């Protein structure tokens, strides 16, 4: 299993601090997710039904008519490589490592590249894997560049796979509206912006033939009925979405400013997280953990990703914890 954020119980055991005392900033999930109301009791007795309104709500939200509901984008990440014969792929590094792992497990070759390498390598690969904005660096690309890469790949039967897990805070940058193009696959999720990671609801946007092949591989009922019920309401709640985008823009800037005041100017990020390279990232992460503040640690390159605190008490706690952690690291 690859490393991920959110392994709170493991951190609680390691540092001897009960889970309920932690400030978990390790996932990049919106700490004020869509407010789930009590569910109707029959949600738990019903099998999922494709005509329950979920696909209509998703089509309206994404502005796209060609999509497939899946059990979180992770299910699609693992299944998509099985739809191609062995080929050459490339993806940014660092990035969400499950993409690379899934393609390698399916027998493909995957090259790790930097953002400045993409134009040169597109001519020599079959699949380009991008997280947009990138996780954890926050790297973004102009829409015209993305579509140029997609067109060049598609001309040879290749794919551009774009994981837009963090794009809902700035949906104008999405490629959802052109997802019917051959060779373009867009992944979306309700986990980050909507704060519904536990519901395991995601969507694959792409050409119909590809979606049909993927659906055949996944089989029936990928999403439980209670999750579908919640997802429909969240996707339709435009007032909450507008207010949340405004709040996340403010909070993303606030987190960047907080880190900068401590001399930890972010190296990148987006509305839901900030990423900073630091030579002593591991000691700093462990010093924060001793104060029950959990962040996401990366070894290559040595760096940290911090998600957003929730209320004012959590913002103050993070501010104090960073100051104390820096003093501890400097003494060591």
Please, how many helices? 11
**What number of domains?**
2
State the helicity in percent bands.
25-40%
Widest sheet: strand order? Answer: 2-8-7-6-5-3-4
Globally, the shape reads globular
Question: Biggest β-sheet: count, sense, barrel?
Answer: 7 strands, mixed
How many beta strands in the DSSP annotation?
A: 13
Radius of gyration: 20 Å
CATH H-tier superfamily of the largest domain = Type I PLP-dependent aspartate aminotransferase-like (Major domain)
Question: What would CATH call the architecture of the largest domain?
Answer: 3-Layer(aba) Sandwich
Percent of residues in β-strands: 15-25%
Q: Which parts are unreliable, with pLDDT below 50 for 5 consecutive residues or more?
A: none
Question: Could you say what the CATH topology of the largest domain is called?
Answer: Aspartate Aminotransferase, domain 2
- The average pLDDT score comes to 96
Structural classification: alpha/beta
CATH class of the largest domain: Alpha Beta
Separation of the first and last Cα atoms: 32 Å
Order of helices and strands: HEHEHEHEHEHEEEHHHEEHEEEH
Descriptive report:
It is a single chain. The protein is an alpha/beta fold. The chain folds into two domains: 8-28 and 239-331, Aspartate Aminotransferase, domain 1 (Alpha-Beta Complex); 47-236, 3-Layer(aba) Sandwich (Aspartate Aminotransferase, domain 2). Helix content is 38%, strand content 16%. The chain has eleven helices and 13 strands. It has helices spanning 8-15, 54-62, 73-79, 97-105, 118-121, 143-154, 208-218, 225-236, 238-261, 281-289, 312-331; strands spanning 23-24, 67-70, 88-92, 109-113, 127-131, 159-163, 184-189, 202-205, 268-270, 273-277, 293-294, 296-298, 303-307. The strands form three sheets. Strands 2-8-7-6-5-3-4 form a seven-stranded mixed beta sheet, sandwiched between helices. The two termini are 32 Å apart. The mean pLDDT is 96.
